Amino acid sequence: MKTLTTQVTQIVQPYTLHPVTDDSTFEELHLTDVERDSIALDIENTLGIHVCDKTARGWQSVGDVVRAMNARMGEVA
């Protein structure tokens, strides 16, 4: 079973030419609000976790995404 970090990095990777890790920041990956919005949609479609645009635009790193998804999964459980 894939970890949430692995799933999120695989969702983010197609949006950048740079290698993605959980420590990667969106600035170093050259990702804008448009890509954050698309990543949020991909997360919803792939993982079934809804993310609003305001939340997605607040992400600064891949780790932020993972923490947000863990929190959302905790709310649902």
Explain how this protein is built.
This protein has four helices and no strands. The model has no long low-confidence stretch (mean pLDDT 90). It is mainly alpha-helical and 77 residues long. It has helices at residues 4-12, 33-47, 53-58, 62-76.
The pLDDT mean sits at: 90
Given the C-alpha coordinates, what overall shape results?
globular
How far do the termini sit from each other?
19 Å
Could you tell me the strand content as a percent range?
under 5%
Q: Sheet bearing the most strands, described?
A: none
Uncertain ranges: none
Rg, nearest Å: 11 Å
**Alpha-beta content class:** mainly alpha
Number of strands: 0
Helical percent range?
55-70%
Number of helices: 4
The quaternary organization reads as single chain
Could you state the order of secondary-structure elements as H and E?
HHHH
